[in-house]
Write a structure and sequence with these properties.
Length: 495
């Protein structure tokens, strides 16, 4: 038996699977985020431990016999968080989370070196990454900084609780800005920018390698029959990829959640920092991945539904009926989906959402369509940015809440001009991914190349010829709207 633990921002999810990867039990425990100031987002690491214990107890309750025979555990977690502990292993302050924006100024300072930071880290320094947060601590909480013995990512603090050991995996560590992504090792040069060294870091392993043993205390507490191995695990998106089976460079997936992600594996280290593409190690040995991120995807749909007084399902129905007439699309307004700034391809935290070409005849349905189209164009921006350095992907799988709308996926297939495959839904995708990684630690499994396999495809979607021409023209106009807004954005932010 194998357990996957997924430490998310809003909660911990756990899953228990057997040798055949059948899901035997699942559990969830909610978490909260504290925001002491505007732009500050933090969590108490002790809350992760409590939530994990609740989940493990629930798995045990559901399937006691199977749970007790667990062989290994995998852990995934939200990336980039700065969890700092002292030389006694005690947490010094709340973890600064991935969506915390306080370290914006420190990003520019981090990159202002006499060597090419991006070429080593593979990424643009953004406030969400770990390193700028530590540089912020140097200037603003110097006493806390002086106490640092180890800097851990969220899931790796959870691992420390489980095993008493300091490890991290390659995929999660890629989001710190301290790692040489091509060499798959910590960079002394990058660490020095944050006044840190290798001793402040956990040991690096691949996602499927052993990274500690469950402590005897916890083994006894949860009544496990054998010594339980804890593997390296993965950052959340790489874990989701493992859950889907997206590990080869001809594969990719789009996640239509609150944010929008396009993810594709590569066999070599590639990067495109000019377009704010993320270059990370995959959780599978000798694999990397490219990832575009748009900050607002399905939450734009939530927003327009709210302000037009309709449910999300009614909004989607309205848009579907509206789109049956191609002239409606030709005359629809345009929407820039940047409600919270944007990462790929603009790396612009100051840009905001906006409608364009609104008329006296514009109705709520017109705006609803524009929002759905604008999100789809944002996904296309990400795919295009990655295609500049890697265009080997053929299969594009779609997951997330947005994939439940057939109309939206039809629209997206036409916007991208690519075939799309909607996969079987599972809110435990990341937990499944790291449970699969945990299976690699089981010496009784001989054919380990078959562990990570694709989830069943529910439906295929293809571009529609009658949409292609008009959507391509509208995309070019949409792109020019953003470009022409630069001066206005600067004026807006100067007020």
């Amino acid at each position: 038996m194998y357990i996957g633990i997924d430490l998310g921002t809003s909660g911990v999810k756990t899953i228990l699977i057997d040798y055949n990867q059948d899901i035997l039990a699942t559990a969830h425990s909610a978490l909260t985020v504290q925001s002491p100031q505007d732009g500050f987002n933090e969590q108490d690491p002790n809350s992760w431990i409590k939530a994990t214990e609740i989940c493990l107890a629930e798995l045990k309750k559901q399937k006691s016999k199977e749970f007790s025979n667990t062989t290994s555990i995998g852990i995934s977690g939200h990336m980039h968080g700065a969890t700092i502990i002292d030389d006694q292993g005690k947490v010094i302050r709340p973890c600064i989370l991935w969506n915390d924006t306080r370290a914006f100024k420190e990003c520019e300072e981090f990159e202002n070196q006499d060597f090419d930071v991006r070429n080593i880290s593979g990424n643009i320094a953004m406030p969400g990454f770990t390193a700028p947060k530590i540089n912020w601590l140097i200037k603003n909480e110097s006493e806390n900084f002086k106490k640092i013995s180890k800097v851990l990512l969220p899931k790796d603090y959870l691992r420390y609780y489980l095993t008493g050991e300091f490890f991290s995996d390659m995929s999660d560590a890629s989001g710190t800005l301290w790692m040489d992504i091509m060499k798959r090792q910590w960079s002394e040069q990058l660490l020095a920018i944050s006044k840190l060294n290798i001793n402040h870091m956990p040991k690096l392993v691949e996602g499927n390698q052993e990274a500690g043993m469950l402590s005897s205390k916890l083994k006894e507490k949860f009544n496990f029959n054998k010594n339980v191995i804890v593997v390296g695990g993965a950052g959340d998106n790489a874990a989701s990829a493992a859950g889907l089976g997206v590990v080869e460079e001809n594969q990719s997936f789009i996640s239509l959640g609150t944010s929008g992600v396009f993810f594709t594996p590569t066999s070599n280290f590639l990067m495109n920092t000019k377009d704010a593409v993320h270059s990370f190690c995959h959780c599978i040995p000798n694999k990397w991945h490219l990832m575009s991120v748009m900050l607002s995807a399905s939450n734009c749909l939530d927003w327009i539904s709210s302000i037009t007084g309709t449910s999300i399902s009614d909004t989607l129905k309205n848009v579907e009926n509206f789109s049956k007439d191609i002239d409606n699309i030709s005359n629809a307004p345009y929407f820039l989906p940047y409600l919270s700034g944007e990462r790929t391809p603009h790396n612009n935290p100051h840009v905001r959402g906006s409608f364009h070409f609104i008329k006296t005849t514009t109705k709520a349905t017109n705006l609803q369509y524009a929002v759905l189209e604008g999100i789809s164009f944002g996904i296309l921006d990400g795919v295009t940015s990655i295609s500049k350095v890697n265009n080997n992907f053929k299969d594009i799988f779609v997951v997330g809440g947005g994939s439940r709308s057939s109309f939206w996926i039809n629209l997206l297939a036409s916007v991208l001009n690519r075939n799309l495959h909607v996969c079987e839904q599972s809110e435990y995708g990341a937990a499944l991914g790291v449970a699969r990684l945990a299976m690699f630690a089981d010496n009784e499994i001989s054919e380990k190349e078959n562990i990570i396999k694709k989830i069943k495809i529910n439906k295929d979607y293809f571009p529609k010829d009658n949409f292609l021409n008009i959507l391509q023209k509208r995309y070019q106009i949409w792109k020019n709207i953003y470009s022409s807004n630069d001066q206005v954005i600067n004026l807006y932010n100067s007020i």
